[in-house]
Specification:
single chain, 185 residues, alpha+beta, tt1808, chain A, globular
Length: 185
């Protein structure tokens, strides 16, 4: 029996694809379904997202996007990633309204909350995609170990524990958050 050939899905096709009850990303033209994360994941994502939103809004630094906002990070084949939270600096917004579809570029900061079922290889692949497309910083939040990996590049990671402060450094000057506050009830 001959196998039907499939062509890569484009970002435009992915945007209107009907995927009932499923989260997904487009990775090199292939739709990759992801299971819904659990309660702990959602709480941690909201905690970091809310803190980022308040700070960015108060200082008019740009926009913070919530979970699953799509960013088109590669073309031919297309890749659309959706971090758990993201920051886009004001100077990159161009003064117009946000896009109706996917952001046509990577965020300045991508935040990923790592769930127990996330495969390390898949996390490394996402990190590579973020940095290859121009993301300046990636924060990986690990509820299981109550740590944050502050990545300045795929090979430059600072691991912070509950006694540490997560800092916005040069990307979000003045932003800081106790790591414990992201994981404690």
């Amino acid at each position: 029996m001959a196998r039907a050939s499939t062509r890569p899905v484009t970002a435009e096709e992915f945007l209107v694809l009907d995927l009932p009850d499923a989260r997904a990303e487009l990775v090199r033209g292939e739709v990759v379904r992801m299971s819904l994360p659990g309660g702990e994941h959602g709480i941690v994502a909201m905690r970091i997202g809310a803190r980022l939103f308040r700070f960015v809004d108060e200082h008019a630094l740009g926009v913070v996007c919530s979970a699953e906002t799509g960013f088109l990070v590669a073309r031919h084949p297309d890749t659309v990633r959706g971090p758990d939270a993201a920051f886009v600096a004001r100077e990159r917004l161009g003064g117009g309204p946000p896009p109706l579809g996917f952001w046509p570029f990577a965020p300045d900061l991508a935040v990923e909350v790592i769930s127990p079922h996330d495969r390390p290889q898949a996390v490394r692949e996402k990190v590579r995609d973020w940095f290859a497309s121009g993301t300046r910083r990636v924060w990986l939040l690990y509820p299981g170990t109550r740590t944050v990996h502050n990545l300045r590049s795929p090979s430059d990671a600072e691991i912070l524990g509950t006694a540490d402060l997560l800092s916005g450094e040069d990307l979000l000057p003045g932003f800081s958050c106790p790591v414990a506050a992201l994981f404690d009830e």
